[in-house]
Amino acid sequence: MDKQEYLDLSKYTRIVIKVGSAIITNNYDIDEDKINQIAQDVSYLRKQNKEVLIVSSGAVACGMKVLNIKKKPDSVPIKQALASIGQPYLMSIYEKAFAQFSTNISQVLISIEDILSRKRFLNAKNTFEALFGLKVVPIVNENDSVAIKELMFGDNDSLSSHILNLIKGNLLIILTDVDGVYDKDPKLHKDSTLIEIVTQEEAWLKNLKGKSKLGEGGIVSKVKAAFIASKGGKTAVIINGKRKNPIKNLFLDKTFPKTIFLPKSYVKSKIYWINNCMSLGKLYIDYGAFESIKNRKGLLAKGIKAIEGVFLKGNVVDIMLDNKRVAKGIVNY
């Protein structure tokens, strides 16, 4: 597609919507009206023959509400406990909201191990395909309650970019509390300008700052997730989720404020996965092996000089030559 076709949102058929804690909370309380709006917007998209998946934060915030805790704790075990308390409550609100539109939802908790392992990645993909076939709206969250700190996505923005590839989606919509990406913080600078279209990772984007009160992300993680999507050949849009029916209006109103990240070119799902998957080890190779890789002949054991890290079949590793990464690949044995 050319630039104008990418800008035509009506062409996208499988959509991931990322909903952050800041969007569905209001003064440390759960904003059920906003969740109702999201359900209404998704119902509208489904009537346009679009398949929709939601990546939703908010479990910790819901746990805080249940226990009447006003300040987000710093302790990882406490936050994990709050997530386990809040997740059922969060899903009950979503279930009630979607029931108004005769829509069934499902809960899918994903851990980073489900992404790191190619086998588990493909198993999850099959589950989502089955859910779409059953006309269900999957609602995804990280499996915070049992995740190890060193093996966590850290924020659902990152998770959403991986889920987009996992389900072979073509549009990622990220909801935040501003109208998109600005050249300066709009909350501090009245002369800030909304960047409407991004086609490449410009230097000023790397200097962005900002983090939400209840969530783990912020504008920085949202821009990073958008770039992961666009570099993977998919379109990403950052919009203000605090506006009324933001998703529906994004599709109906061409003047709706947004920042859209346009893809450069199509990337195969497997390549997208390898490029963005955490490497669990390093293989140090000789020049003969490097020539074999360049000629797409694969890597044999005899070309490996040293191994670093702990990994299994199906994991991604870095390929090193003279202490420099020259490639990434999947371990086959």
Automatic annotation (TrEMBL):
- Top EC class per UniProt? transferase
Q: Which GO terms describe its biological process?
A: amino acid biosynthetic process
Query: What protein name is recorded for this chain?
Result: Glutamate 5-kinase
PROSITE patterns associated with the record: GLUTAMATE_5_KINASE (PS00902), PUA (PS50890)
* EC number per UniProt: 2.7.2.11
Is Lyase tagged as a keyword? no
Q: Does the keyword Transferase apply?
A: yes
Recorded name of the encoding gene: proB
* GO CC annotation, single: cytosol
Q: Which NCBIfam families match?
A: proB
InterPro entries the record matches: AceGlu_kinase-like_sf, Asp/Glu/Uridylate_kinase, G5K_ProB, Glu/AcGlu_kinase, Glu_5kinase, Glu_5kinase/COase_Synthase, Glutamate_5-kinase_CS, PUA
Q: Which residues form the Aspartate/glutamate/uridylate kinase domain?
A: 14-239
Q: Which residues form the PUA domain?
A: 281-333
Which species is this UniProt entry from? Desulfurella acetivorans
Keywords recorded for this protein, A-Z? Amino-acid biosynthesis, ATP-binding, Cytoplasm, Kinase, Nucleotide-binding, Proline biosynthesis, Transferase
User: Which GO molecular function terms does the record list?
Assistant: ATP binding; glutamate 5-kinase activity; RNA binding
